[in-house]
Specification:
Keywords: Antibiotic resistance, ATP-binding, Nucleotide-binding, Transport. By secondary structure, the protein is α/β, with parallel strands linked by helices. The protein has six helices and nine strands; from the N terminus they run βββαββαααβαβαββ. Strands 5-6-7-3-8-9 form a six-stranded mixed beta sheet, sandwiched between helices. A hairpin with a 2-residue loop joins strand 1 and strand 2. Bound molecules: adenosine-5'-triphosphate (ATP).
Length: about 220
């Protein structure tokens, strides 16, 4: 089953189309990477797919729902390159605070386990590595039982070991049925995905509508 369906998507800023006639689908549990250079339109496309930006043409469906019109009906979460900053709080305090305003949250231990952060509950946010901070953002998204993740450059600014760790978590989540759409500028990072769509000047030049392995 396709969880993310993007058809003929266009997003415009003023006179300029940042995303032009983009179509692709992502199956349940699949990891799809949007690869493109600076300014290719990756973030804009992610924002539209996550329902944070209204398209000027085409359609987006996530689990059959228009994410812009009915964002609250979806269990989908976004992780941005500039993630949360939680100075003065431990990992457990950040997660507990987040749980308080999340409807029907996972347990703190469950979200931390899924994000690969078990055992770090008492560590102050300032002492986390950059990779652990990224994973804490993932844990906060997972608290809401999200099974669709949108990530913008998940390993940007991370060292190789931290990048490995983040992708280990993403692959483990995918194996449990979580669908992942990740934007990246790095071909090496894109290769970790099940499928890659190459975005150039707003157009998907490869990786658009086609049969994908998990749907076959
Ligand atoms: N809010 C905005 N207003 C006007 N133009 C914008 C806005 N956001 C993005 N753009 C333009 O849209 C195009 C695509 O930008 P976008 O940020 O989506 O690219 P990107 O592939 O994510 O780039 P990067 O790798 O640098 O993050 C660029 O030309 C950018 O300047």
């Amino acid at each position: 089953m396709d969880v993310i369906e993007v058809r003929g998507l266009r997003v415009r800023f003023g006179e300029r189309d940042a995303v032009r006639d983009v179509s692709f689908t992502v199956a349940r549990g699949e990891v799809y990477a949007l690869l493109g250079r600076h300014g290719a339109g990756k973030t804009t496309l992610l924002e539209a797919a996550a329902g944070l930006r209204r398209p000027c043409g085409g359609t987006v469906r996530v689990c059959g729902i228009d994410p812009y019109e009915r964002r609250g009906a979806l269990r989908a979460g976004t992780v941005w390159r500039d993630g949360g900053l939680f100075p003065g709080l431990t990992v457990a305090e950040v997660v507990d605070a987040w749980r308080r305003w999340t409807l029907d949250p996972l347990t703190a231990a469950g979200a931390l386990r899924l994000a690969g952060l078990s055992g770090l509950e008492d560590v102050p946010f300032e002492r986390l590595t950059p990779g652990e901070r990224r994973l804490l953002d993932v844990a906060l998204v997972l608290l809401a039982r999200s099974d669709v993740l949108f990530l913008d450059e998940p390993t940007a600014d991370l060292g190789e070991a931290s990048g490995e760790r983040v992708w280990g978590v993403l692959r483990a989540l995918s194996a449990q049925g979580v669908t992942v759409l990740a934007a990246t500028r790095a071909p090496d990072e894109a290769r970790r995905a099940d499928r890659v769509g190459i975005l150039d000047d707003g157009r998907l030049v490869t990786g658009g509508d086609q049969t994908h392995p998990k749907a076959a």
